[in-house]
Amino acid sequence: MARSETEDLCNMDTFFSFTELLDDGNLAAFKGDTHDGEMRKVQNARLREAVEKSTVEMPVPYVQIRNLVNDTEVPAMQLDVKSMVLTCDWRGMFSAFFADQKLYEKKLSEVV
After folding, report:
1. Per the confidence metrics, is the pTM higher than 0.85?
2. Using an 8 Å Cβ cutoff, are 31 and 84 in contact?
3. Which end of the chain is more exposed for a tag (fewer CB within 10 A), N or C?
4. Contact 90/28 with Cβ under 8 angstroms?
5. Whether 76 contacts 27, CB under 8 Å
6. 3-state class of 61 per DSSP?
7. pLDDT single digits (tens) 75-107
8. Which helix (DSSP H) or strand (DSSP E) does residue 84 occupy?
9. How many C-beta neighbours within 10 Å does residue 65 have?
């Protein structure tokens, strides 16, 4: 069953996939999927707002590494909505991601 445009506007997650390392390997670039027409304008506005309003208390991006997902901080995150390319400090992101995962596993083992 095809989704309506309204349903698509309500579920506009943008997925970014790794493309290359930049700046002598310090930054990683990720290319995002895009929508067309009016939906693209809405997607761009939502992404701009997400990047500008992301805080530690309300992180916007979710990071997925293999089968693990976390709302990890993404250091030095920059987004070019025109080209739909996101860049970030990948080492800092991985460090934060796996530190969060280790803490989660520790707390989980204390409960179980």
Report:
1. no
2. yes
3. N
4. yes
5. yes
6. coil
7. 898 888 889 899 999 999 999 999 999 999 999
8. none
9. 13
For 41, the 3-state DSSP assignment is helix
Q: What angle do CA 53, 19, 101 make, to 5 degrees?
A: 60
AA letter at 42: V
State how many domains the chain has.
Answer: 1
CA distance 17 to 43: 17
Domain encompassing residue 60: 5-111
Kindly state the DSSP code that residue 52 receives in the 8-state scheme: H
Using the Cα atoms of residue 46, residue 51, residue 53 and residue 59 in order, give the sign of their dihedral.
positive
The 10s digit of each residue's pLDDT in 20-49 is 999 899 999 999 888 788 888 888 888 877
Residues 31, 54: Cα–Cα separation, whole Å: 20
Amino acid at site 76: A
The continuous run of DSSP H or E covering 76 comes out as: none
